[in-house]
Amino acid sequence: MASTADFKNGMCIHFKTGLYTIVQFQHVKPGKGPAFVRTKLRNVKTGKIIDNTFTAGLKIDVARIERRPYQFLYKDDMGYNLMHTETYEQIALEEELFNAPDLLKEGDHVEAVIHADTETPLYVELPAHVVMEVTYTEPGLRGDTSSTNSLKAATIETGATIMVPLFINTGDVIKVDTRNKEYVERVKQ
Question: Which 8-state DSSP code applies to residue 98?
Fold first, then answer.
């Protein structure tokens, strides 16, 4: 058991009927009345963020979670097969646990967040950015920049489609943000 004085960003707690991570918190001591802690909590399963206020000193139940390094091997009818990079143990996880499964290619390293008490996988995070090759995109036409943010669709090596600037061509290598599936920059080879 811990109290609201132990709050840290990223801490995982049991709240209401599920697991929540603390995104942001602020201790408030008003002139009148008792102190309280204002928080933003993210539901681990759904990703939904809620606001909640705790009275100062309230006891909370902290959930023990572990981040474990895995390597993506392949996808089959059992799900996404991962191998622990230190123990070489293999597990198969369903697609719903991944934040961007369409940006995952064989050999990529990911981080699985596991509830340590029950050994249940909660979610899997890809690295913040991945490097991909553009397998198909329409050629950009010269003078076709009516606005500064002109974008076109491009298919990358995993089959996902993302929006890229007009100067990107088939065969270019680009960096993609896995959190919002957006183009970041062209990678020099």
Answer: B
Q: Output the domain CATH number for residue 21.
A: 2.30.30.30
Domain around 88? 65-125
CB count in 10 Å sphere of residue 51: 9
User: pLDDT > 70: what percent of the chain?
Assistant: 95
Ordered alpha helix ranges (H), 29-185 = none
- What's the pTM value of the predicted model, to 2 decimals? 0.78
- The structural domain count of the chain equals 3
Contacts 24+ apart (CB under 8 A), 94-100: 97/121, 97/122, 97/123, 97/124, 98/123, 98/124, 98/126, 99/123, 99/124, 99/125, 99/126, 99/178, 99/179, 100/126, 100/178, 100/179, 100/181
φ/ψ of residue 146, rounded to 5: -70, -25
Question: Can you give the CATH number for the domain in which 96 is found?
Answer: 2.40.50.140
- Are both 69 and 115 inside the same structural domain? yes
Which of 72, 50, 80, 67 is CA-nearest to residue 115?
Answer: 67
- Token pair 């058991």 is found at 1
